[in-house]
Description:
By secondary structure, the chain is an alpha/beta fold. Helix content is about 40%, strand content about 15%. The chain has two domains: about 15-25 and about 250-345, Alpha-Beta Complex (Aspartate Aminotransferase, domain 1); about 40-245, Type I PLP-dependent aspartate aminotransferase-like (Major domain) (Aspartate Aminotransferase, domain 2), CATH 3.40.640. It has helices at about 25-35, 50-60, 75-85, 100-105, 125-135, 155-165, 200-205, 215-225, 235-245, 245-270, 295-300, 330-345, and strands at about 15, 65-70, 90-95, 110-115, 140-145, 170-175, 195-200, 210-215, 275, 285, 305, 310, 320-325. The longest helix has 23 residues, at about 245-270. The protein is globular and about 60 Å long.
Amino acid sequence: MATYKVANASGLIKLDAMENPYQWPADIIEKWLEKLRNCQLNRYPDPDVQDLAATIRKLNQIPDQFEILFGNGSDELIQVLLMALPPDSSILAPEPSFVMYRQIAQSLGLNYHGIPLQSDSFELDLPAMLDAITKHQPRVVFLAYPNNPTANLFKKSFIFEILETSPGLVVIDEAYAPFADATLLNDLDKYENLLVMRTLSKLGLAGIRLGFFIGSTGIIKQLNKIRLPYNINVLTQITADFALTQQSLFAEQTQKICQDRTALFNALNAISEIKVFESAANFLLFRTPADKAASIFLSLKEQGILIKNLSPQGGLLTDCLRVTVGRPEENQNFLTVLKNILAKE
Length: 345
């Protein structure tokens, strides 16, 4: 295994971690601080996160027969789920995808199987996925929707076939749902083995580390046996509950990010030396000239811009870089510097 390293972004334009680049207006911050003033820091937080659960249930119109389980970000949810499995279990996911599926599975000694995506489209290789499911009988299949780092939405018909074929749970990771206008929440009542995973990090609350599963009462009841008590602190609970009442603010920010994503895509698409891929998330993946990803990444960093170099992962990500959609001035700065670098390569 290797340590999951987080780059130091001090003094840099930070376009590496798929964060919402916009902070809250001053009046919203004041309202939030008023909520925090009554916080009882001397008491343990609500172990069942009841107020926040009610808010999320209402906003997402989640029927009563489904329950919510909270985690300290999606990472803890993945860990809780995989800790609940027998030690000889198989885990399956397409690759490339979110690295923590593999990282956590391997750290727990589970059998992880990565199935390559189609090289031309980053779409699921459905025959290969179904063959692997038949062969390995995975207890859990992870599907990021949209996928990270490729930013595309897999075909729903393919996902439904995987749900119908899988003997175990299928986790649909909807971390980037705010930018995709796509979800499987409405399909929970059709598949007993479906778990939907969400996070507030990409929406604009990366700093509070909050994720949640939505699934059947029976599944959530079992996972609660593994979840540590009081895992969601009181400041996170109050902040998230308050933030989710500010729907117009987040809708405005999300719309702006999607518009800027289109503008950034068009600008990158006009650069002949690179290939940029369509995105349903808040980031763009692009392929550089052969063997140039590392030097371009370092040149950008030297000039004050931090993005993500994915080329070391190899496979379909060879020569690929990933850039988060930032504020317009940040995007323009990135484009200007990138063009200058390519002109000198």
